[in-house]
Amino acid sequence: MPIWNLHGNGRTVEPGKVVAPDERLNWGATIAVGVQHVIAMFGATFLVPVLTGFPVSTTLLFSGVGTLLFLVITRNKLPSYLGSSFAFIAPVTAATASQGMGSALAGIAAVGILLAAVGFIVQFAGMGWIDRLMPPVVAGAIVALIGFNLAPVAWTNFEQQPLTATITLVAVVLFSVLFRGFLGRISIFLGVLVGYVVAAIAGEIDYSAVDEAAWIGLPEFRVADFASPGTWSVIAMFLPVVLVLVAENVGHVRGVAAMTTRSVNRQTGRALIADGAATTLAGMFGGSGTTTYGENIGVMAATRVYSTAAYWVAGATAILLSLSPKIGALFNSIPPGVLGGVTTALYGLIGIIGIKIWVDNRVDFSRPVNQYTGAVALVIAIAGFTMQWGDFQLGAIVIGAAAALLIYHLGNAIARWRRTGADDGGPIPAVGAMGGDPQ
Fold it and tell me: Where do the coiled-coil regions begin and end (predicted)?
């Protein structure tokens, strides 16, 4: 059982101080903070199984178990909650439609295994090789294409109940700008609540499954199918997700390090191993793939409590919630209009995260190599390109990711050999505070 030092008087956090990962407040306050982490992650975590058709209770179970596993592997030094990763939605949706849920689960498990392998390499060799393989223009393109590839799915739900969908979308945007702090960070969850109430008033919700579900019971487990011939073509669609999970985990570790102590950065390799192990476990038995959660970073920043004790509470709470089939059935009752409204914003936000990587790293889009790396990848994703050889099929995500990597690295090699100036010359100079010319 992990041991934490009591912070101060155990009740308050002094101005300018934080509760470090190896500290805790009194158990009453720690439990309260832990439950707050569950609320923060809930809105995003339940949406992934609802959108992909996976059992909500099973996803909650492996989310909680994965969080506890993460804390063990990182030796209780890195505060983090593992919730459902949106990066899996597109490949899971495509894989389930073509080969079934068993093959989709095999794809999730394969991502977890590869992510853990990357973690072991990072633990011993550092992060430099990832930066060389996936520079900002490539990383941004791959993250963005995963979100934009889902645009047709959002429209399919939206058009079924357009009024409910519009109200839900407006609520999500409104809450994000109306509230500050914690409420602003859970605007998606609040928007879903508004849309759900509107749908209930309009009689658009079927509660029959909720009425039939038991209050207490084990989640529904499914087993990954590695035996079906089509599974291996499905797994190829999942591989680009590894790059997204690497970026998310590295960003999480650096964020916690910036707010606590730089020594946290030494846990980067272990964080990748831990998320890989949690994702593999979830994929093998019917849960959604996991990742570290930005929503919980927001809770830590607001409370200044970075204690891993709170995450043990959060993981245990998620496991308890997963043991109620009625809760899972209630979330599965969310109608298409609500899903269409929230995913119009959500999928677009995934794409914008990729574009933000470009902006943050000042990618120079006057260079042809950078232009075509982003342009070709995004068009492939939005149009939904596919390639097929017999039973083996490649979807838009893997084609777009491969195109981004190939155009960037091969294009750079040719441009530098020919000295045409078309290669990536690095970040553009920062402009002045008033937007003037570079100094």
Answer: none
